[in-house]
From TrEMBL, chain A:
InterPro entries the record matches: Isoprenoid_synthase_dom_sf (IPR008949), Polyprenyl_synt (IPR000092), Polyprenyl_synt_CS (IPR033749)
EC number: 2.5.1.91
Family: Belongs to the FPP/GGPP synthase family.
PANTHER family membership: ALL TRANS-POLYPRENYL-DIPHOSPHATE SYNTHASE PDSS1, GERANYLGERANYL PYROPHOSPHATE SYNTHASE
Protein name: All trans-polyprenyl-diphosphate synthase PDSS1
Naturally occurring in which organism (per UniProt): Ceratosolen solmsi marchali
GO cellular component term of the entry, any: heterotetrameric polyprenyl diphosphate synthase complex
CDD domains: Trans_IPPS_HT
Gene name of the encoded protein: LOC105368261
UniProtKB/TrEMBL annotation, chain B:
Any one Gene Ontology cellular component term annotated for this protein: mitochondrion
Protein name: Decaprenyl-diphosphate synthase subunit 2
InterPro entries: Isoprenoid_synthase_dom_sf (IPR008949), Polyprenyl_synt (IPR000092)
One GO biological process term: isoprenoid biosynthetic process
Biological source species: Ceratosolen solmsi marchali
MF (Gene Ontology): prenyltransferase activity
Pfam annotation, one family: polyprenyl_synt
Keywords associated with the record: Transferase
Family of this protein: Belongs to the FPP/GGPP synthase family.
Domain of life: Eukaryota
Amino acid sequence: MACLGSSRLCARAEKIRQFHRNIASTALSTRSFRSSSEQAASSTGLLRRCQNFQNEHNCRLNVARVMSSMQTQQPGSLPDYRIDPYQLLEDDLKDVYEDIKRELIGNTTNEELRTIATYYFGGQGKALRPMVAILIARAINYHKDRNGLLASQRQVAMISEMIHNASLIHDDVIDQSDFRRGKPSVNALWSQKKVTMAGDFILAVATMMIARLQSDDVTLTLSQVITDLVQGEFMQLGSKETENERFTHYLTKTYRKTASLLANSAKAVAMLSGADECLSEVAFQYGRNIGLAFQLVDDLLDFVSSSDAMGKPTAADLKLGLATAPVLFACERYPELNPMIMRRFQEPGDVEKAFELVHKSQGLEQTRFLAKKHCVEAVRLAQTLAESPYQKSLFVVSDLVINRIK
Amino acid sequence: MSIKKSVLTILQRKNAISTLLCKKYNLYLVNAPSVSFGCNKFSTKAATSQKPDWNRAVSEAEKIVGYPTSFLSLRWLLSDEIANVALHLRKLVGSNHPLLKTAKSLIYNGRNNMQAWGLIVLLISKAAGHLNVDDMEEDKAAGVLHSQRALAEVTEMIRTSHLVHKGLVNIQPGLYPEPSELNDMTFGNKIALLSGDYLLGNSAAELAALRNQDLVELMSSAVRDLAEAEFIGRRDSQNNPLPSVPPADRTNYAVTEWTLRNVLSAGALLGKSCKGTLKLAGHNEEIQEHGYNFGKHLALAWQACLDLSPFITKDRNTPFNVCSAPVVFHIEHDPSILMEIDKGIESVLNVDYTKVYDIVISGPGIELTKQLQREHSQRAMEVLSVFQESDARTALSNIIAAMGDF
């Protein structure tokens, strides 16, 4: 995944980071970040806050920021440089998997449970969820004139990956898939009962970590994710909805199964940063839109990606009887897909026929368009935050999501 | 819809039965105070001499804390997801999936019934009373806090979730050569997994709503313990436990082995729930620890009583667990019985149960198990003497006494 950054970009990112560190100690250079009028408005807020500041030095700094924002730079939302977020957050992310493993291992003395519970941590995972959580956390901290990352925010990043992993493990029991993250899946190696219990174990340890953050609101936000995940699975079981409701059903399911985790962990890190309701909502909506786009692209790739690039076979969703966005779009053009959707592609030839019709229709383009819309919305939300390398990276994440090939 | 109706009918019927039983209430109250709590030499024997009946002890106790605790489950039984599950369950009727058996045992399973766990939590809440709590938080009629009632519900949900997850089937290649049977089993596993997750997710959400992070951590650690319990010791292909091979020095082998398993699988949850409810009531750490010990010892006494029952009924065909207390005590006495038990290394079904039964019944196992149960009952009773005399305390001691009554 971390393939975008060519060496030139990396060098640039390094420069930005250097630059970012300098902000703390020296007055801001004349380089301007702010562009839209909306941000100019928020910087008057900064000005007001600045007047209350005791620290002379900090105050001067902020004035400089406000002044610099008066002049606009380039139009449009395109950033003038590209930062690879994985590169930018390298220090934050490099030990996430190790720390999760340590946490899990510390909670049991049973070797077998340790092995199963830590199996998926440190494989070929993209660590998308911790990355987005940390990026949002740093962007919001910066927006609130604070530098760095709180330990509690990093915990949330770990927790989000743990919840995701627990759900993957339970998915494996249900889907009977043989490969995941480039290795044999857990259910191919251990019995269903043990795998199920290992999933429960990871979830329990994650909930304990949530509790240790000692924040009622964060606990409420993150426990919502767990109920959403299960309800999403339940929605995937039944296809009793009518044609009209089907798309709403699909989107709700997608939100619950994928976007809720990104959205709520973004909200949690914002709350830990002391963000007000409005700012937490920006974080939440950013995560939600990225999550929806991510899943839409995932559903799209299921139709175009070759089996070795995906790490799972093509048209896997169809084979599982699931009608995803490309099929639902295609069905507007080819109504003969309707009965196949209703019988969950169970009859011989259904999968092949549906696959062919999706490719003949505009389904794939329409799916990409919808994903793009969510990405644009995510970028718009990120623009309301103060300019920083982290905020810029939030734009890049949306590009990564839409342009990914696996 | 029809499912919701039938669930209601079942519950109403159950209620009718408890009303009938409650008519004996006055009579029973006359008997109850004759159990002396004041003296420290309080023994189970005194209580047993009254021949208290299990069902009566439970239904009297239910009356003390307000409505029957089985009503706690009403809310989640009537939710859409569970209605959905019930629909799917119907598809499994006729198949061999153990989920049906689990579902049946959830409605009624004699001494092991689920409601009793929540009931114990409510009774100890009432027996201990609460300090410095807002009037609005109290359910005046029942003498417990709303939050304690919620915790009792969480306890039941966690336990149910664990039982449902334990009820999955390990599907080994070739185990079900018939495709339709394989389908049933896979589908049953899916429903069992999701239902368990649903309960676990909801219990996490409900705990979060109590806004007490120490409690969230405590209860999550109980979930962790339950999961860990499934990895302890030797297992057959369906994850049924087998007693471990004793070391050369067998002193204390039985008690260590049995306690390790059962503290994790039962004692931890009830102990931590009782501790948690005292935490909610504002009691100090010391009292909370008493709560933990009460719950733990009660659960262990309960387990010893369950382990004992197949060997008491004089019916040689009653199924029993090869890790139950009478068997492990016999192993400590004479490990040659392992020759027979180890035939179950592939599947415990290969063990000749009548043979093991005959060996155990002629050895010291039963007497030692009775002693074990008495010890734990005694310990639980000792904790009770810490609290002031009340109808709730009487009910708890009646329940403990009823366990020893065959």
